[in-house]
User: Which sequence fits this backbone?
């Protein structure tokens, strides 16, 4: 396990071309690509580990990832996603293909397996809904064709500003044909079968918005991404940041932890550097924020008049839901427990929007979704690195309002009432887990609940939101959500610039590096 370099005051005396705030996937990707093009970069991470949602943590003999559960397409060595991962890890990152049955969508009366490749999935769905054969085939065909239309939309974000008025409409028009519509509305053109609608949108948790609230573009990108199955990084998700950091350091850059940024420094309408929480000031010709839009505007630019231009624009977007994650350690191996690596999506009913609305009205009622993942069964090196044990994770929604009473209390010091709430929620999640994975109960050795406050403290999302900005049709029309900002030499990167998830953050880093360098790095893939 890599030992991360902590911040030292002497770094103030060093010279850097670009300072990057945050070491998540987008920040690391931008840092590697800029390093490979001759820039000396400094990546500043507030946490004591680099990697953002790719980092892992340990308790006792157990280790858990905090955000990576499965990735599509990387088993195809010629896919753009695989090529970019290879680029930023110097080809060192390896991937383990999951079983063909990558997801299981579970309702009270029936479960439905999502199986790769797509031909098998089509056959399985038709087996459940024979009268919907045409609808199912047409739906899968649309996923395939429509996702390709997004290439122009995302590439337009890296256009020079002077060129955008001339090319934006032609590059984005095919994408907006469906991005302007809600997922549920588009699917109802294929079928009126409510059960089939519930099954087809059974992965909505992968982007954080139920089908009545999400742009079809977001649904299509996620569903299409997994049609050929899922993969997991060999050695766990922390290997992504470890290999990327090696590549940055190889080219003379630095990644330092325990280096919380307090403010982005500007001179006039130009970014010139950052001030750290300890008061140190560091300067560079370019600054990139990979810390999320809300953090960038409300925290890093809070004292800068140049940040005011963002305030009005931010009224057009909203954060996604906050969530809970129960990390579980078991004292038997995945093989002994009979664990497969299939993800479980457990729902109380087929109408996802209704499930969420009921939960909002009554947070003490049934969870609208419980997602269960088996990371130790996905990693072929787990037993070598962690003999005699296994891990699980269970994720569900967790309203910020349920926890905000403790928002000003310190981590690990929020008192008995907070711990009592966590314990009751943990047991409620365990009841769902044990119902669907009964063999876990006798082997349960340790569990720990992450709340929205944990996410806020560790990942700096202000209300513990799951996926940054919500993926409504309106969100995709915000032209200002692009790498280059109105503040000269200040750039944004991350899922708020593109869309949700690891691969989106990966490509966001590519777009931002392209903008900084004034080069189309997409072509190099």
Assistant:
């Amino acid at each position: 396990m890599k030992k991360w370099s902590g911040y030292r005051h002497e770094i103030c005396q060093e010279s850097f071309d670009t300072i990057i705030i945050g070491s998540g996937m987008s920040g690391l990707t931008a840092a590697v690509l800029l390093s490979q093009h001759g820039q000396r970069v400094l990546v500043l991470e507030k946490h004591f580990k680099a990697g953002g949602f790719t980092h892992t943590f340990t308790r006792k003999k157990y280790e858990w990832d905090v955000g990576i559960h499965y990735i599509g397409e990387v088993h195809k060595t010629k896919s753009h996603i695989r090529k970019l991962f290879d680029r930023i890890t110097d080809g060192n990152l390896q991937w383990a293909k999951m079983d063909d049955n990558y997801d299981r969508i579970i309702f009270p009366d029936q479960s439905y397996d999502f199986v790769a490749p797509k031909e098998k999935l089509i056959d399985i769905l038709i087996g459940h809904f024979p009268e919907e054969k045409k609808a199912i085939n047409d739906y899968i065909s649309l996923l395939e064709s429509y996702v390709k239309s997004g290439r122009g939309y995302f590439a337009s974000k890296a256009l020079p500003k002077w060129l955008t008025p001339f090319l934006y409409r032609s590059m984005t028009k095919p994408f907006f044909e469906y991005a302007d519509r809600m997922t549920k509305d588009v699917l109802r053109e294929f079928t009126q079968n409510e059960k089939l609608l519930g099954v087809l949108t059974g992965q909505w948790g992968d982007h954080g918005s139920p089908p009545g609230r999400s742009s079809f573009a977001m649904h299509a990108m996620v569903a299409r991404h997994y049609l050929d199955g899922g993969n997991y990084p060999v050695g766990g998700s922390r290997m992504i940041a470890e290999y990327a950091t090696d590549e940055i350091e190889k080219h003379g850059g630095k990644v330092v932890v325990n280096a919380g940024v307090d403010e982005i420094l500007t001179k006039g309408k130009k970014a010139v550097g950052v001030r750290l929480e300890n008061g140190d000031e560091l300067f560079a010709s370019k600054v990139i924020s990979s810390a999320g839009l809300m953090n960038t505007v409300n925290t890093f630019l809070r004292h800068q008049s140049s940040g005011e231009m963002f305030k009005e624009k931010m009224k057009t977007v909203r954060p996604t839901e906050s969530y809970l994650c129960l990390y579980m350690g078991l004292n038997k191996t995945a093989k002994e427990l009979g664990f497969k690596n299939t993800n479980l999506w457990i729902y109380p009913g087929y109408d996802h929007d209704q499930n969420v609305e009921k939960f909002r009205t009554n947070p003490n009622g049934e969870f609208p979704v419980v997602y269960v993942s088996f990371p130790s069964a996905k990693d072929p090196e787990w037993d070598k690195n962690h003999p005699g044990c296994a891990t699980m994770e269970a994720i569900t929604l967790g309203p910020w309002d349920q926890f905000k009473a403790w928002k000003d209390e310190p981590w690990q010091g929020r008192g008995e009432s907070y711990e009592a709430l966590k314990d009751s929620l943990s047991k409620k999640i365990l009841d769902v887990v044990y119902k669907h994975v009964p063999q876990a109960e006798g082997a349960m050795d340790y569990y720990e609940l992450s709340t929205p406050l944990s996410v806020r403290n560790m990942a700096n999302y202000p209300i513990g939101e799951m996926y940054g900005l919500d993926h409504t049709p309106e969100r995709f029309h915000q032209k200002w959500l692009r790498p280059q900002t109105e503040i000269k030499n200040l750039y944004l990167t991350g899922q708020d610039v593109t869309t949700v998830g690891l691969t989106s953050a990966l490509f966001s880093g590519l777009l931002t590096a392209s903008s900084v360098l004034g080069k189309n790095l997409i072509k190099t893939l």
